[in-house]
Structures are given as C-alpha cells and as structure tokens.
UniProtKB/TrEMBL annotation, chain A:
Residues holding carbamoyl phosphate: R59, T60, R109, H137, Q140, G265, P266
Gene this protein is translated from: pyrB
Name assigned to this protein: Aspartate carbamoyltransferase
Organism classification: Bacteria, Pseudomonadati, Bacteroidota, Flavobacteriia, Flavobacteriales
Family: Belongs to the aspartate/ornithine carbamoyltransferase superfamily. ATCase family.
Taxonomic source organism: Flavobacterium aquatile LMG 4008 = ATCC 11947
Function statement: Catalyzes the condensation of carbamoyl phosphate and aspartate to form carbamoyl aspartate and inorganic phosphate, the committed step in the de novo pyrimidine nucleotide biosynthesis pathway.
TrEMBL record, chain B:
InterPro entries referenced in this protein's UniProt entry, alphabetically: PRTase-like (IPR029057), PRTase_dom (IPR000836), PyrR_bifunctional (IPR050137)
Start and end residues of each Phosphoribosyltransferase domain: 3-161
The organism's taxonomic lineage, starting at the top: Bacteria, Pseudomonadati, Bacteroidota, Flavobacteriia, Flavobacteriales
Pfam families referenced in this protein's UniProt entry, alphabetically: Pribosyltran
Protein name: PyrR protein
Species in which this protein is naturally found: Flavobacterium aquatile LMG 4008 = ATCC 11947
Length: 309, 179
C-alpha cells in the first residue's frame, strides 16, 4: 500500500508525483465524507494538532481547523498576536513549549521563507507548512490542482496562466511546482515589476499581455495584489492595474473559448477580477474552498499515519 | 503455502439462493430495507444477492449501497501497513430503515464494529443485521454474530479464507489457505 514519501509537508518542491496522486485519491474519499449528513470520521481521535499562525489568515486557518475536526483530532489554535512571541520568545522555544503538551503535529504559517523547514529540523513533530513568506503554500497549490482535475478531468497537458502579483506570492511558486510535476504547462502574466527576475529558470514563460495569456490558457489563476507586502509602489495605481491585468466579463466573453477562473482568495473585487466574473459559471473559487477542506484532511490523515505510536 | 477448496461454484450458488430466500422471509418486498455491501470484498456478494433477488424472485427496487470503513477502523497507526480507503457510495438515507450489512468473511468482528459506527453518518437505522458468506467460528474479538450465514468454518489464525468471485477472480469458489 502506498504512503507519502515525506514526514512533513514543507513545500511541493519536496514531493514527488506519486505523493500528489495519493493525496488526490485520499481527498476524493474525504470529499465524499464531507458531503455526508454527518461529516466526521474518527480516524485521528488520538492525534493532537497545534495550528500556529504568525500571520493573518481566515480561509486557511478555518479550513485546516475544520479538516482536523472532521478527522476527530484534538486541535489547539493560536495566533501570534496573543502569544508570548510578542514578549520575545524564539520560534523553537514557542513550538517546543507547545510540544511539551503532547502535540503530534504542527500546522504553521510564518512570514519568513523557510520557517517550516527550520522547524522540521529542530522539533520532534510532523510539520505542515500553511504558508511561509513568499516561499510556498503547498496545500493551496494542491487544492488548486485538485480543482482543475475536478473541472477538466486531469491536470496533465493543461495550460495554466498565473496572473498578477507573482513576486509576493507563495501560491504562485507552489502552483508552478505542482502543475509542472503533473505535466501542465505554466505561464505567468503581470506587470514587469511584479514578476520575479529569474522566473524563467523555473521553466515558466512570461506573457505580459493579459488578453494573449487568456487566449492561450485553459485555466487562469488570478492572484491577489498583496498590498500589505508592498514597501514601494509596483504599479502607478490600482485603477491602472485593474485596467491592464483585471479580468471582467466582457474580456472573458470576447475570448474564443471558455476558460476556468481560479482565485486563492481573498478577492479584491474589481481589481483582479470583477464581481460578475467571480460569481460566474466559469469561476471555481467556491469549489476551491470546499476542496481545500478535503485536501487538508487528506494531507493530515496521510502524515498522521506516519507518526509512530 | 497450500490451499484447500471449501466451497465450489455450485455450492456457492446454492448458498446464495438460500441466503436470498432467508432475506425475503424476513424482509418480504424490501420496501423498508436496504443492503449495504462492506468495501472492498462485500461489494461482490451484495451485488450478487441483489441480482438473485431481482432476477429469480422478482423483488424490485432494492436499494444497495457500499460502505467503506477505513476511516472508522480501530487499528489506524497500529499496523505495519497504511490503510487504503475505498469508495463509499450510499445515495440514500438509512434513517428508520432496516439495514443489512453484507460481507464475505466474518472473522474478528472489528470491521463490523467499525461499520456500525460508520453507518451512523447516514442516519439512524431502525435495525441492523449482518449477512456473511463465511463465518469463521471461535475467532471473534467482539460479541458480534451474523444473522444470515452461508457456511461456518473452523480455521486457525495462520489460515486464511479467500472468497473468489467470477467478476473479479474468474471463478466462484472459497478456499482455505495455509501458510
């Protein structure tokens, strides 16, 4: 029987294709579970999980918590704003104190790239990266690919364009790794200032023109403009960004084919996409949220099965 | 490894007809009864029983579902091998229905115990029964007994009972395998 090749989920980079297949197969089962009248299974009743969020999150945190509770794990959650981190405690100390309370798994979001990897090297627990700076956000990339697979049948051979603030986006990097691993072709599109300088070294091409990018692709993943990470102005104004890189219904309807619109959330309505696009038939944004719970259940279940008794 | 035949194709066929008749005796037209095949191996038996009820005894509209109990098992993280899940497919509620679990071999009873918990995700059945083709006597870990049994078998722990189906293995037969 198959199991994951890793003991932690630190990034898509550390996975192999078979891991992604196994996570998707398991998520299929959990998607059926969360559509039952009673949406809970008792598998992880002897597992305790700590959710440690050093950065703000609504969707990811709720999704992880729900996934853990649907698997019957005991869950403790804390946000850095209310913790001793503010008093000067180090990351390892904070986490080791939590682990002393007999915690088996840690789900962490942190502003520093590599924080999850650092933790996995220094503490004895299974680590799930829920986003580390502008580095990786593996569960988001998995649920994005899972949603593509659900809508289009498979990921292999599909053309995906990632539009917008690629520079500050951990979602973009994880998606590039995940999509390429599954045999999809990836382009990025956005203002030159928001495209990393060496992005082509990842085997990704850059298309500065949004219309051309959309005409090429099967799926457009619209990233959020991460204003909170921008220390300088990367484009003249939000209005100009929306004109150049925002997708509206008129643009979608003028394409010669129907493409799938994705967005990792939270949406700046009227900036990356207009409301009528976000709420259209072509958008899978709410499917992504539902699939997020199933994917996170699968990841946690598979990692927990590797924790020795 | 040696194997001995316990039931031939003809014997399996006779037993399946008897089990179908016993079900009719208790459930008549199956208006308030559902069959639940336990994944993975109970699926074949459940499908076969349904087929016999419909074709040979003209019972129509039998609701059949398949229940996977992987996430409800009590040995998660306890065995050497990770547990592999199968598809659950129950397109109806079992609230106030009579549920008949169908599985090929009853051994320790732990799968049935897990199934009793798992089925509650689909409602509260009015009663639950168990139909099994092979009942391995004296090997139960829990106080669970079948309501309908095909054949009782005495097998010791290092022996394995293997049920073969024409759809899957190319023949209907039951073997006792000794390592």
């Amino acid at each position: 029987m198959k199991e994951l090749s890793v003991n932690h989920l630190l990034g898509i980079k550390y996975l192999v294709k078979e891991d992604i297949d196994l996570i998707f197969e398991t998520a299929d089962h959990f998607k059926e579970v969360i559509n039952r009248p009673i949406k809970k299974v008792p598998s992880l009743r002897d597992i305790t999980i700590a959710n440690i969020f050093f950065e703000n999150s609504t969707r990811t945190k709720l999704s992880f918590e729900l996934a853990q509770k649907r698997l019957s794990a005991d869950v403790i959650s804390f946000s850095a704003a209310q913790s001793s981190v503010k008093k000067g405690e180090t990351l390892i100390d904070t986490v080791n104190n939590i682990l002393s309370m007999k915690v088996d798994m840690v789900v962490m979001r942190h502003a520093n790239p590599g924080a999850a990897y650092f933790l996995s090297q220094n503490v004895k627990a299974s680590i799930v990266n829920a986003g580390d700076g502008a580095h990786e956000h593996p569960t988001q990339a998995l649920l994005d690919s899972f949603s593509i697979r659900e809508r289009l049948g498979e990921v292999a051979g599909k053309k995906v364009v990632i539009v917008g603030d690629v520079l500050h986006s951990r979602v973009a990097l994880s998606n590039i790794y995940a999509l390429q691993m599954q045999g999809a072709e990836v382009k990025v599109c956005g203002p030159k200032t928001l495209i990393p300088k060496y992005i082509e070294s990842l085997g990704v091409s850059v298309e500065p023109n949004l219309r051309k990018a959309l005409e090429w692709c099967d799926v457009a993943n619209m990233l959020r403009v991460q204003n909170e990470r921008m220390d300088v102005n990367y484009f003249p104004s939000t209005r100009e960004y929306a004109q150049q890189y925002g997708v509206d219904k008129a643009l979608l309807d003028s394409l010669n084919k129907e493409i799938v619109i994705m967005h990792p959330g939270p949406i700046n309505r009227g900036v990356e996409i207009t409301s009528d696009v976000a709420d259209s038939q072509q958008s899978v944004i709410l499917d992504q949220v539902e699939n997020g719970v199933a994917i996170r259940m699968a990841v946690i279940y598979l990692l927990a099965s590797k924790i020795k008794q | 490894m040696s194997q001995k035949i316990l039931l031939t194709s003809q014997e399996v066929n006779i037993i399946l007809h008897r089990l179908a008749c016993q079900l009719i005796e208790k459930h008549l037209d199956f208006s308030n009864t559902v069959l639940i095949g336990l994944q993975p191996r109970g699926k074949f038996l459940a499908e076969r029983i349904k087929q016999i009820l419909e074709k040979e005894y003209s019972v129509s509209n039998i609701e059949l579902g398949f229940l996977d109990i992987t996430f409800f098992r009590d040995d998660f993280r306890r065995g050497e091998k990770p547990l592999e899940a199968n598809k659950t497919q129950i397109d109806f509620l079992v609230e106030d229905k009579k549920v008949v679990f169908v599985d090929d071999v009853l051994y320790t009873g732990r799968s049935i115990n897990a199934a009793l918990t798992a089925i509650q995700s689909f409602g509260r059945p009015s009663e639950v029964e168990l139909l099994t083709l092979i009942d391995r006597r004296f090997s139960r870990h829990l106080p669970i007994q079948p309501d309908y049994r095909g054949r009782q078998v005495d097998a010791i722990n290092n022996e394995k009972v293997k049920v073969c189906w024409i759809e899957n293995e190319g023949e209907d037969a039951v073997y006792l395998i000794t390592n």
